[in-house]
Write a structure and sequence with these properties.
It contains 34 helices and 35 strands. The strands form six sheets. The protein has an eight-stranded mixed beta barrel with strand order 26-27-29-30-31-32-33-34, surrounded by five helices. A five-stranded antiparallel β-sheet has the order 2-1-5-4-3. It has six domains: 36-133, Beta-Lactamase (2-Layer Sandwich); 153-266, PAS domain (Beta-Lactamase); 285-394, Beta-Lactamase (2-Layer Sandwich); 413-521, PAS domain (Beta-Lactamase), CATH 3.30.450.20; 534-689, Alpha-Beta Plaits, CATH 3.30.70; 702-952, EAL domain (TIM Barrel, Alpha-Beta Barrel). The chain is α+β, with helices and mostly antiparallel strands and 955 residues long.
């Protein structure tokens, strides 16, 4: 077991890492931050004295190997952390570390010191805590050096094995530690035994080198032959690592020292990991850090320091003088100074000589501010820390500005404010508070008690019928209840709202707000919430409340109460013709008439739009019918609006309690059903609810339900009725008529389902189907037209013109062969918009006719607004030509009007030769009716064309 090399260079190498650790620990312990580094098992591997000092912790408890959980337990014992919070705190922090998330937190210690903690996961595993006293900065003290000295002490007291060989490579002597170390037999390994025998026995006992046995023998032989001294590590039979160092003597022999270095090697590995963690800690610090020796030469620094001063790693090599660092930093543009590098250096020396560690502010060229501290070390040299305090400086400036703004805001608040301490003495108050109560500034100032202020205000007569003592006693009692709001009603009629908020450290903040106008506004809002803004009548909400009260009275005391629901007829026409302002005036006029004609205890309400309702007590239904009859007559004669006569009416539905129920919803439903029936009569009428109306409503609902599925179920079909010119009996076209064949109802009358479809909007998809089907059917006919009716509802829906264009294009039907029939009702709804749509349709080349002229709201103005291609005279006039002189006059007049305007006139419903002769005599240009043919399915149109052509040839 020999080596010929001296071990001094290796000893120096051993000293190198230890010295570096000692140096790094020295730097760490003089940092102004507390630093504690944990390994992956959450046990301390590094901790500095500043960390212990900040938390007032015991170094006997908080040391290398201590778990983080025990550190927190120790902190609880010191009063730094409430015991009830430690479990949750531990769990949350460990979870964040495990997730690899750095975070910052703030903690107030039992000593009153406020500490910031920054916890960061480290790249090599484990994590670190950097703590900073944000109340004041203190010097860092070393702890890592102490631990290093303890490790060196442990290494110095280890025992060694020793064996000596002579020049013939035979054992001269070996100690017991050597034999025990390798479990060797003293009868074999003894003086006189050859080196090779000893090696063979050493290998046989399970000891081994890092190479094979033969390679190991050859290497040892070569070492002896070349007298090569080297350090060799071998492995003992039990796995422990042994270091051997051989020294060759002048006589040719040698001595080999064997040391169990298992713990030392483990320690060195641990030390290596600690160095890695220390480097990571230094590189992850928010502050710049640099350590200088006694000659002011740099020993170590972190990257933050380099970033602050714009220095490269080459420019910050160990040994670089501080003056050179200052010069390079200024040259690199990190900061500018009116002083030279030498002057800055002398100032630093002076501070270090005085051991002045107070911060120096240095403004960098990028407008950041750096706080620089020099902390002289007892052993010589110093530690410098560099902190970016830009945000702190801005915060200080902002705080000063906030104080100024607070003072300005306090005395310019619209509210009064008074801050009271726990004994109800004034800390601060603003001018508005004093002015609000008319108090004396000489009395109301910091230090005065609230009791004195209340006595002063009562003397001024601010609080009617109240003494200061009573006011104060009541005030104290209210404060015992905690935070609250109260209202003071002052003698001048004002209402002051006081809002009390408890302050964190005792005392109160009280705000005073003049809410007089707000209370008045709230009263107005409360009224508006239950009344209609246009008529000031009760709205639906208040009406339902009154109805509930009335029904309760009827249920308890007897008697009867009627509900009358009103709906104005033709009101939309007024809005469209004269504008909404005129409509609003009409609604106010109606509201006034309703109020004039009811009893003192009756209720009139506007439910919305043109809907009104009345609750009427008295003998029923006589009283309700009398009232309804009178109001129908009155509202039928409204005043002129904008110098124009208006034609409106009202329909009334009546339900009576208890005859029709005592439930408000049920009674309103009955009144609505009666109103629906009144409108069905032709408007301008009233109707008392009858039980069979419910059945009618159910039937109508069932029909509506079936109607919704009819289009998808293909239950609709079209029939076509011919249209003939009178002068030539020439067939000009067919009118497409919609029919519904229900699977169980059979053929449903259009008069029954068309109005229902218009009510619920189904007429839009149904009308589109009619138009597209009619166009597609007519495309196969000869050169004749197809007429399709348009509902007023279709004009209100968007896309009518686009739909017509699409239907013509899909069918390939020329636009001139399509005639669209519109009623005067469509023009009534929104004549301006409807006329515009008609012009767009006319621009496509489509013919437009005015259907059912002479009934309803006939107005010659429509003929002036739009040049219709045809006027169709309603069948009701043709059917009564032999009985009614009025019908004769109307038909003659319309035909004459058409002749003057150059518009074709078609008489509908011609069924007899007499009617045919008469409408010809009147001047009508075309006819339509059973005389020339009943409506027929699409499949029979060809036969109808042949028949009519044959009739024409005969004629």
């Amino acid at each position: 077991m020999t080596s010929t090399r001296d071990n001094k260079p290796d000893a120096r190498r051993d000293e190198g890492p230890q010295a570096l650790v000692g140096l790094s620990q020295l730097a760490l312990d003089h940092m102004e931050q507390g630093v504690c580094v944990y390994d992956a098992d959450n046990r301390i591997v590094l901790v500095n004295q500043r960390y212990l000092t900040l938390f007032n912790m015991s170094a006997e408890i908080v040391r290398i190997g201590t778990s983080y959980r025990d550190v927190l337990g120790h902190s609880v014992a010191l009063g730094n952390i409430p015991a009830a919070e430690v479990d949750a705190l531990y769990a949350s922090r460990i979870a964040l570390i495990a997730a690899g998330k750095p975070f910052r937190t703030r903690q107030t210690l039992a000593s009153g010191v406020v500490i910031t903690l920054e916890l960061k996961p480290l790249p090599g595993g484990g994590w670190m805590t950097i703590c900073d006293d944000v109340s004041r900065l203190a010097r860092l003290e070393a702890e890592l050096r102490l631990q290093t000295e303890r490790s060196q002490h442990a290494l110095a007291n280890m025992s060694h094995g020793l064996i000596m060989y002579d020049a013939d490579s035979r054992i001269v002597v070996c100690n017991e530690r050597f034999l025990n170390l390798y479990n060797l037999d003293p009868d074999i390994v003894k003086p006189g035994v050859s080196h090779w025998t000893a090696i063979d026995h050493w290998l046989s006992r399970g000891n081994r080198a890092d190479v094979s046995g033969d390679e190991f023998r050859d290497a040892r032989l070569d070492d002896v032959r070349t007298r090569s001294s080297k350090t060799v590590h071998v492995t003992r039979h039990d796995g422990r690592r042994i270091q051997t160092v051989s020294r060759f003597m002048p006589d040719g022999g040698w001595v080999t020292v064997h040391e169990d270095v298992t713990e030392r090697l483990q320690y060195e590995e641990t030390l290596k990991q600690q160095n890695i963690m220390l480097d990571a800690a230094l590189e992850n610090m928010a502050h710049g850090l640099a350590f200088y020796d006694g000659d002011m030469r740099l020993r170590v620094c972190n990257s933050t320091y380099r970033q602050i001063y714009r220095l490269s790693p080459e420019q910050t090599r160990p040994g670089t003088h501080l003056s050179e660092l200052i010069r390079q930093s200024m040259a690199n543009g990190a900061f500018a100074s009116e002083y030279s590098p030498q002057q800055i250096l002398e100032a630093a020396r002076e501070r270090l000589a005085r051991r002045d560690s107070s911060p120096m502010r240095r403004r960098m060229v990028n407008d950041t501010v750096i706080s620089v501290r020099y902390c002289a070390l007892a052993e010589g040299g110093f530690v410098a820390t560099y902190e970016d305090i830009t945000e702190h400086e801005h915060a200080v400036e902002e705080l000063s500005e906030q104080y100024r703004r607070f003072d300005a805001a306090l005395n310019n608040m619209s509210q009064g404010l008074c801050m009271l301490d726990s004994s109800l003495h004034v800390i601060v108050c603003n001018r508005r508070y004093i002015e609000m109560y008319g108090l004396s500034p000489e009395i109301v100032k910091p230090g005065v008690s609230m009791r004195e202020i209340m006595e002063h205000s009562c003397q001024l007569g601010i609080h009617p019928n109240m003494t200061g003592a009573r006011l104060y006693a009541d005030y104290v009692e209210r404060l015992r209840e905690g935070e609250h709001t109260l209202h003071r009603h002052l003698s001048d009629g004002r209402i002051i709202k006081l809002n009390h908020k408890r302050m964190e450290h005792g005392g109160w903040v009280v705000t005073y707000e003049d809410v007089t106008e707000r209370h008045k506004a709230q009263a107005r809002v409360a009224h508006m919430a239950r009344h209609d803004s246009l008529t000031d009548l009760p709205n639906r909400t208040l009406f339902r409340e009154k109805m509930g009260e009335g029904l309760n009275h009827v249920a308890i005391a007897g008697g009867a109460m009627a509900v009358l629901c009103f709906d104005l007829d033709k009101f939309k026409t007024v809005n469209d013709r004269l504008g909404h302002a005129a409509g609003d005036r009409l609604l106010r006029w109606v509201a006034a008439r309703l109020k004039e004609n009811v009893g003192e205890h009756d209720t009139v309400a506007r439910l919305g739009g043109d809907e009104f309702a009345i609750l009427q007590r008295g003998p029923q239904p006589q009283s309700a019918e009398t009232l309804a009859r009178r109001l129908v007559d009155i509202i039928a004669h409204p005043p002129q609006l904008q110098s124009q006569s208006v034609h409106v009416g009202v329909s009334v539905g009546i339900a009576v309690a208890p005859d029709h129920g005592l439930d408000a919803d049920e009674l309103m439903k009955c009144a609505d059903l009666a109103l629906y029936q009144a409108k069905a009569k032709g408007r301008g009428a009233y109707q008392l609810f009858e039980p069979e109306m419910e059945e009618e409503a159910r039937s109508r609902h069932a029909l509506e339900h079936d109607l919704r599925g009819a289009l998808e179920a293909n239950e609709f079909h079209l029939v076509f009725q011919p249209q003939v010119r009178l002068d030539t009996t020439e067939l000009t076209g067919f009118e497409a008529l919609l029919r519904w064949r229900h699977p169980s109802r059979g053929l449903v009358s259009p008069a029954e389902f068309i109005p229902l479809a218009e009510e619920n909007g189904l007429i839009v998809p149904i009308g589109e189907w009619v138009l597209r089907t009619a166009c597609a059917t007519a495309a196969s006919w000869p050169d004749v037209t197809v007429a399709v009716n348009l509902s007023p509802v279709q004009f209100r829906s968007r896309g009518l013109v686009a739909m017509v264009t699409s239907a013509l294009a899909e069918a390939g039907l020329p636009p001139r062969r399509l005639e669209l029939e519109v009623t005067e009702t469509a023009l009534l709804d929104d004549s301006k918009a409807t006329i515009e749509i008609l012009h767009q349709l006319r621009a496509l080349g489509v013919r437009v006719s005015l259907d059912d002229f002479g009934v309803g709201y006939s107005s010659l103005s429509y003929l002036r607004k739009f040049p219709f291609d045809r006027i169709k005279i309603d069948r009701s006039f043709v059917g009564t030509l032999g009985e009614s002189p009025e019908s004769v006059a109307i038909v003659r007049t319309i035909a004459s009007l058409g002749s003057v305007l150059g518009v074709e006139t078609t008489a509908e419903g011609v069924e007899t030769i007499e009617q045919l002769d008469f409408v010809r005599e009147c001047g009508c240009t075309a006819v339509q009716g059973y005389y020339f043919g009943k409506p027929c399915p699409a499949a029979e149109v060809g036969r109808a064309i042949e028949t009519l052509n044959a009739v024409r040839r005969v004629a």
